[in-house]
Structures are given as structure tokens and as C-alpha cells.
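Read as chain and fold; for instance:
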Amino acid sequence: MTLTDLMLKRRSTRKFNDEKITKDELDKILQAALLAPTSMNRKPCNFMVVERKEILNKLSQAKDHGADLIKGADKAIVVVADTLVADTWCEDSSIALTHMHLMATELDLGSCWVQIRLRSKDGQDSEDVVRDILKIDDHYRIVGILALGHSDDIPKPHTLEDIDKNKIHFLV
């Protein structure tokens, strides 16, 4: 599969079945995260793998809308970035999440990026909610959580015809 094929195939999956992610699959996804580039190679991101159902259920309630799918996932990976290491934590976290999302696609797993940054739960910052659930310090920031699992409901790939080339502007 070419990189273009992989990017076309990558789709967000919000329904998961009961099949477990294998250790090998999880290792490959985490390896992809660790291979993600970071500004000045500072590597501020940490990856908290959540497998316990009670924690997945709590994370599924970390924001007002769009996190429910986490409770149905086999695992979730919370990307936690240390702001004392790099001020590019948002960009670095986003790249790592993208790498994991693409690796999950290559492995034919379902995955969905659940945004936490700039979201809220009943007026409380969702990052604070996640920090409280995971018992992590305030200097860590959370851009998002990647929900993972096997799925019978992965949408069909995009096609190159789906691309909106009107978004490209040449300045000559």
C-alpha cells in the first residue's frame, strides 16, 4: 500500500466490536507515535495506554459531546505533553496522534481521534477532567485521545476525486 492509499483509507471509526487488539498491534501503534517528529527532537509527548473499562468509561465523559465512543473501544491512548520540555506540545501531540491513526489504518483497526484541547464538560475544561481521571500534573497538556479497536463499521476509503483542489492557491 502506498502512503497515498493509506491516507485515502484512513477514516474515523466510532463503533468497535469485542475483538481485542493484540500486543503486536499495540506495539506497532506506539512505535509509530515514538517515530513522530517533534520540534528540535525534544519529544515532549507521553502515551498513556488505557485498557481498564472503568477508566475508558470515565474518559468517554470527559467532554460534553463526541467522546462517548471511547467506552466502546478496546483501548485508548491519551497523548500527554510536557510543557516544561517544549512549547510546541500542541503540534508535536498532533503529529503523534496522526502517526498512530495512520498505523491503526495500516493494521485494519478502527480508530478515532477525540479532541480534548479547547473542549469542556459542564463548563469545566476537558483537559482538567482528563488530568483528574489520570492523576497527572497541571504542566501536562492533552490535545486528544485516540480510541482504538477492531470494527465491522469502518467507512469506505476516500478517493482522489474527493479532494477539493479549490483549497490550493498558487502565489506566482
